[in-house]
Amino acid sequence: MSFPAVELRQVTRFHGARNTGVAALDGVSLACPAGTWTAIMGPSGSGKSTLLHCAAGLDQVTTGRVVLAGRDITTAPDGVLTEMRRRTIGFVFQNFNLIGSLTAEQNVAFPLRLAGIRASRKDVRGVLGSVGLADRATHRPRELSGGQQQRVAIARAMISRPAVLFADEPTGALDSHSAKVVLELLRDMVRGAGQSIVMVTHDPAVAASADAVVFLADGRIADRLDGPTTHQVADRLARLES
Ligand SMILES: Nc1ncnc2c1ncn2[C@@H]1O[C@H](COP(=O)(O)OP(=O)(O)OP(=O)(O)O)[C@@H](O)[C@H]1O
Fold first, then answer.
1. Contact in structure between 189 and 165 (CB atoms under 8 Å)
2. Residue 44 CB less than 6 A away from ligand 1
3. What residue's CA is closest to ligand 1, atom 2?
4. Sequence spans of domains, the chain
5. Backbone angles phi, psi at 172, to 5 degrees
6. Structure pTM?
C-alpha cells in the first residue's frame, strides 16, 4: 500500500452548536503510514476516543477530511462504511465485545459470516492457533480468562486481514502477563502481515510498544514521539497533564 493507512486532514469535530459547543477535535492533521503502529495518548477529555471514532468512520467529522486505506470516507454513505468495517478495518476493544452465546471459533468466524463469507473450520482453527488458543475453540467467552478472550477478539480481527486495526485500550482489562501476550500479537500483525494499528491507551508502557505516539491536548496534537520508550512517554504525558 503506497498511501497512508489513516489520514486526517484538518479535522474538527464539534459537539453541540458550532460556536458554543465543545471542540473534541480542533484542526487535527495526522498521517499513519501503512504497516505501522500508532498510539494515541493524552489527558482525559483530550479527544482520543473521538479521533479513533472519526478515523474509523464510526463518527462524522464537522470539517476536514478522513482518508482510510486510500479511500476518502468523509461523506461516504452508510453502505460503503459498513463494507469497509467488514473488509478493510478491524476493532479490538477493552471489554472484548465477544458474543457470549457463541464459542471461540464461532466468534472468530462471525464477521465473515456477516459479510456473507463462509470461513473454513481450518482457517478459523488456524487463526485461533496463531493466538495460542487451538485447544479453546469450542469454549464460550465465560469459560475463558480475560487474556484468552482478548486473544479471541484479536483472532476475530485477524481473520479478515484488515488493512487497519483500531484498538481502544486493548490491554486495559488485562493483567501484565496477558497484556504482554496481546501486545506481542499486535506487533506480529504489523511486522508479519504489514497491517496497521491505531490504538488509544492511557498506559505509557503499552504506548511504548507502538512505532509512534501522538499526544492530544484539548483536541489538538500537542506532541509526538517516534520509537518511544516507556520513560519518554510517561514524561511527555506528565507534562501535558500538569
Ligand atoms: N457526545 C458528546 N457530546 C458532547 N460532548 C462530548 C461528546 N463526546 C465527547 N464529548 C466531549 O469531547 C471531548 C473529547 O472527548 P473524548 O471522549 O474524545 O476524550 P478522551 O481523550 O477519549 O477522554 P478519556 O481519556 O476520558 O476517555 C470531551 O470534552 C468530551 O466531554
1. yes
2. yes
3. 15
4. 33-49+76-241
5. -60, -30
6. 0.92
Determine the residue type at 205.
A
E strands, the chain, in order: 6-15, 22-32, 37-41, 63-68, 71-72, 89-93, 164-168, 196-200, 212-217, 220-226
Q: Closest ligand 1 atom, CA of 216?
A: 21
Q: Ligand 1 centre and the CA of 22: distance in Å?
A: 9
**Topology of domain 33-49+76-241, per CATH?**
Rossmann fold (3.40.50)
Specify whether the CB–CB gap between 152 and 144 falls below 8 A: yes
Residue linked to cell 495460542 = 132
- Whether the complex's predicted ipTM is more than 0.95 is answered with yes
Q: Quote the ligand 1 centre to 19 CA distance (angstroms).
A: 17
Nearest atom of ligand 1 to the alpha carbon of 16: 4
Q: How far apart are CA 60 and CA 53, in angstroms?
A: 8
Say how many Å lie between the CA of residue 239 and the centre of ligand 1: 20
Cβ–ligand 1 distance for 231 under 6 Å, the answer no
Say which residues have a Cβ less than 8 Å from residue 129's Cβ, sequence separation at least 6.
Answer: none
Tens digit of each residue's pLDDT (9 = 90 or more) over 82-128: 888 888 999 998 888 999 999 999 999 998 888 788 889 999 999 99
Q: Does the C-beta of 49 come closer than 6 Å to ligand 1?
A: yes
